[in-house]
Amino acid sequence: MSVLLPFLALDRSCDQAQAWVNQQLTKDGWRIVRTFDLQVARVGHPGCTCPNHGTDACNCQMVVLLIYPQNGDPATLIIHGQGDKSWLSLTVSENGRTNQRFGAVIQKTLQDLADLLLITDVVYEDDQSNV
């Protein structure tokens, strides 16, 4: 079982957030592989209603990205979006099999860049002063 806690909220759609993440993280030589796309998965299930909208006309999106360092195991980044908002989370496995050190580097890199570019609500999970 994994725990999923957002560490960053962006004022961008999920697709825009994914493009931004790809652009930022590939600069460091990291490879990104998208392993899941909610809207692609929904194509096989017509008429499935969205729990947030109550209809099958849904603009929610979720993508799962494996981010590979130059050497070592990947980290898993989840981007969940609804409209023009997106939340980024890194999975943390209870058994410790994920690359947590690399995940921490990814988290800091993205938070620092978001702050620098002013594209965030500055909502960090561990920082209650911004709530």
Chain-wise SSE layout:
Layout: E1 2-10, H1 14-26, E2 31-37, H2 38-42, E3 60-68, E4 75-82, E5 85-93, H3 100-117
Antiparallel strand pairs: 1-5, 2-3, 3-4, 4-5
What does this structure look like?
The protein is 27% helix and 32% strand. The protein is an alpha+beta fold and 131 residues long. It has a single domain, classed as TATA-Binding Protein (2-Layer Sandwich). Strand 4 (75-82) and strand 5 form a beta hairpin. The chain starts with a strand and ends in a 14-residue tail after the last helix.
Helix content: 25-40%
Report how far the terminal alpha carbons are from each other: 28 Å
Uncertain regions spanning at least 5 consecutive residues: 127-131
Count of spatially separate domains: 1
- N-to-C SSE string, H for helix and E for strand: EHEHEEEH
Strand order of the largest sheet: 1-5-4-3-2
Count of helices?
3
Q: Architecture, according to CATH? A: 2-Layer Sandwich
CATH topology call: TATA-Binding Protein
Largest sheet: 5 strands, antiparallel
> Strand pairing plus helix content: what structural class?
alpha+beta
Shape: globular
The beta-strand count equals 5
Q: What is the beta-strand fraction? A: 25-35%
CATH class wording: Alpha Beta
